[in-house]
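Dear all,

This email documents one entry for the complex benchmark we are building for the journal club exercise. For each entry we list the sequence lines for every component of the assembly. Then comes the predicted three-dimensional structure of the complex as a token string, followed by one or two observations. Please use this as the template for your own entries, and keep the labels exactly as they appear.
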Amino acid sequence: MPRSQPYHHANLRQVLLDAAVARIGEVGPRAFTLREVARRADVSHNAPYRHFASKDELLVSVAAEGFDRLIASMRKSMARGKSPRERLELCGCGYVDFALRWPHHFLVMFDLPRPANDCEPSHAAGENAFAVLLECVTAAQAAGELPASDPLPLAWTAWALVHGIAKLAIGGNLPLSARATIAFTRHASQTIFRVPPATHPAQPLRKSSQAAKDEKIKGARASPRFSRSL
Amino acid sequence: MPRSQPYHHANLRQVLLDAAVARIGEVGPRAFTLREVARRADVSHNAPYRHFASKDELLVSVAAEGFDRLIASMRKSMARGKSPRERLELCGCGYVDFALRWPHHFLVMFDLPRPANDCEPSHAAGENAFAVLLECVTAAQAAGELPASDPLPLAWTAWALVHGIAKLAIGGNLPLSARATIAFTRHASQTIFRVPPATHPAQPLRKSSQAAKDEKIKGARASPRFSRSL
DNA sequence: AGGCTTATGTTGTCACTGTCAACATGAATA
DNA sequence: TATTCATGTTGACAGTGACAACATAAGCCT
């Protein structure tokens, strides 16, 4: 379908997507309207239907783009890390940071269009994000900075923690500023990664330093049919 | 406003609320419609406007009722615990269990109507839920089963963890059944509570037992203007 | 009792939305 | 050059949230 960019409006699809992302960032996904997006793009209502089967399908695409940006945020944040363990923690901070900057977009990505087809629908991008996290975990394990157990429970735990922090912070349920929320993310990550999960015997663990502020976890997403371990 | 139950329809408000809760449980908050609720209650559209200023206000009330049920779920789950620490963990399982049983309702409670008035709007019920959690944490601290540090960071961490597990599981992002999700919640809780947060020196910690399955965290919600500690 | 006020519910209406069908247009292709 | 098909437009329809005007019955006050 994605020809080059011939025709009338020269790649409308992307223009619509951008307008949708912007609009959602402004008013949120509930007030968000297909027709308004069309207006912004200076096309008639119904023009979007040549590129998206429905409003929900547009939202799915918006979500996909969000996952790309989320991955970018995590990767950028990780880059500052000097050890696998630190990169893992910074990865989580990148996750929370993205969520705080684009709360509406984040909501669309995780809470909006249960896309009918059950298993792993639009999750392609989400899987990539989860892959980044898993990468961090296994790297830390390989470096001996994390117990060499099944990485999945570890990754899930870390993911759930940062995701929970992000959602609660967005909802205004944590009485913390954005900065403090990031700092808290580091703190909480440290708590989690300090000790191996109960199921698996410990392995050498480095205490990163004192306490203060600068910790991270990781974050990602996907619903692959991993071999379960619990 | 809540007189006895005189008038035409004998306490419509509650009928509408029940219908709304039911409808949201069926089709979710996006497909949910004021007019449909009115139909179910056998009143004209616009009848709801005598009891709720807008659709969003109805949703806020639905959310409030959800928090009551959430608290009930946590309390019921806690009741089985034999030690403060175990009760804390079971509290978290009750949290996740509620979310898995009523995913739509859960979404309304945490992700829907940013209720205009900034600070702590409909959070009255949410504060109560958070209070339950905080109770559990301080009880465990008093029993020496948790480090006697500031309970807030501990409570936030635990809350974020179970909230994250709940949201991810609802979204189908954890490849785990409902049962396995609860078991994983216990597992992850154990991981978290096993060691004091980095900021505060450790205190005697009981290793509850081996590994297997039966752990919990806790869960709650609120956005009180607590004195922050991070 | 009678009359006022007010809480409650109804009818009618409006702008707006998502979606469908029918039509128009211009690019690529034969 | 004629055909075809991707793209965009116009027009319509049912359904929605919200408002205004109206109807009714409960409660209250002499």
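Observations: Chain B has eight helices and no strands. The helical segments of chain B are 12-31, 34-40, 55-78, 84-101, 103-111, 123-142, 151-170, 178-193.
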